[in-house]
Amino acid sequence: xxxxxxxxxxxxxxxxxxxxxxxxxxxRLLDLYYLHERPLNSGIASVARQIGMREYEIEVKxxxxxxxxxxxxxxxxxxxxxxxxxxxxxxxQASRAGKASAERRMSARSTDVQPTNNQExxxxxxxxxxxxxxxxxxxxxxxxxxxxxIELYHQNLPTMRRVEVWNETxxxxxxxxxxxxxxxxxxxxxxxxxxxxxxxxxFFQSVGKSRFLTGRVNSKDGxxxxxxxxxxxxxxxxxxxxxxxxxxxx
Length: 250
Prior knowledge:
The structure is a single chain. This protein is mostly helical. It folds into 2 domains: 8-76; 118-242, no CATH class. The protein contains 10 helices and 4 strands; from the N terminus they run H-H-H-H-E-E-H-H-H-H-E-E-H-H. The protein has helices spanning 8-15, 20-36, 44-50, 57-67, 78-109, 146-156, 168-186, 193-208, 229-233, 235-242, and strands at 69-71, 74-76, 214-218, 224-226. The chain has a two-stranded antiparallel sheet. A two-stranded antiparallel ribbon has the order 3-4. Strand 3 (214-218) and strand 4 form a beta hairpin. The longest helix has 32 residues, at 78-109. The protein starts with 7 loop residues before the first helix and ends in an 8-residue tail after the last helix.
């Protein structure tokens, strides 16, 4: 998880007795827990090193013993586990709804195409594409958060080309892909921008697992292809990535 709910009042009521370093340790421990969605290493020194607090093992140990409990798998936080379970449930539900929606659209595509005078087909699917100037006024979908998506791209794919220029062409690609994803997720339930951003975080993690897209495979001429965000966002490329066509043996 790259995003999780943070209730300031609830947090303060449970942590007001902590000193500055204990408070810092707790926040970093929570971030680490949510990021990897699994129990923390049982070794205090190892956990302290992971959160960059090697010199504060005593504070880390104190926080772990108060807010976590040690199991055979490592240090567990029950509240975080509940949030992670809820998050995974939403993702699974949205995925099932998305597949069902895709099947309905594929079925409709063969019956809903109507020719115009200039012989260019117009399909119902065109309603899923966001216009270049942004979201329609009447939509209930969350607006495209360009900055957050770019940050997720840089965070999850640090070896790939960084975005230095964000022009209207690239912004248009992202708005279209954002809307397509949001429409799919909204089939299951009302969504927020955080729900869409969670999807993008998972998507970029999937991109990072492709040896081809990340330049870990050389072509016959000895050069490696490395994708960038604009290439990823182009309709055909995006669809192939989602379908896993770049995640084979290569």
